[in-house]
């Protein structure tokens, strides 16, 4: 039987001094029971041997840290949420508009209107489903902003706001002048 990625990582980490960190990106997209299996139970009891269904024991070292990233606006996390909350600490990372503003300013794009609109939109969406800044970290944002907005941002809004009356104020045709800083 071939060891899985977690066991491979634990073997490599065992020869190192100090803590080791395993990052599981987009945890919400995975079938956690399939990916982590019984190791989820062992994560809960770090440093203690846990008997597996096979009869073998698994001990996850205390100095092995697992960081899982997840987009909280994904509906799929609700099923896994309770099992994960017992094993992981959750830290919310709200959008950093100051970082986006500096990034775009360095590229000659005035982000004030965009950020103001994103703040209003996120107030309407609530804390569980904000539109983040990742869509807008683009060197060519001025050229592709309409496409990003209509194909990515509006899709997010339609999914979470549910109802044209709630989405309409944030459709591209309603926000483009303010977002781009263009004159009407």
Residues in helices, as a percent range:
40-55%
Topology as a string of helices (H) and strands (E): HEHHEEEHHHHHH
Mean pLDDT: 85
What gross morphology would you assign?
A: elongated
Distance between the termini: 66 Å
The helix-and-strand class reads: mainly alpha
Radius of gyration: 22 Å
Q: How would you write the strand order of the largest sheet? A: 1-4
The biggest beta sheet reads: 2 strands, parallel
Strand content: 5-15%
Number of helices: 9
Task: Detail the poorly predicted runs.
Answer: none
Q: What is the β-strand count?
A: 4
Tell me briefly what this model is.
The chain is mostly helical. The protein is 48% helix and 8% strand. Helix 6 crosses helix 9.
List the helices and strands and how they pair.
Elements: H1 5-13, E1 20-24, H2 32-36, H3 39-44, E2 50-51, E3 57-58, E4 64-68, H4 77-87, H5 97-105, H6 112-125, H7 141-161, H8 164-167, H9 172-180
Parallel strand pairs: 1-4
Antiparallel strand pairs: 2-3
Helix pairs in contact: 6-9
Question: What can you see in these coordinates?
Answer:
The chain has 184 residues and is mainly alpha-helical. The chain is 48% helix and 8% strand. The strands form two sheets. A two-stranded parallel ribbon has the order 1-4. The chain has a two-stranded antiparallel sheet with strand order 2-3. The longest helix has 21 residues, at 141-161.
Task: Label this structure with key terms.
184 residues, mainly alpha, two-stranded parallel ribbon, two-stranded antiparallel sheet, 9 helices, 8% strand, elongated
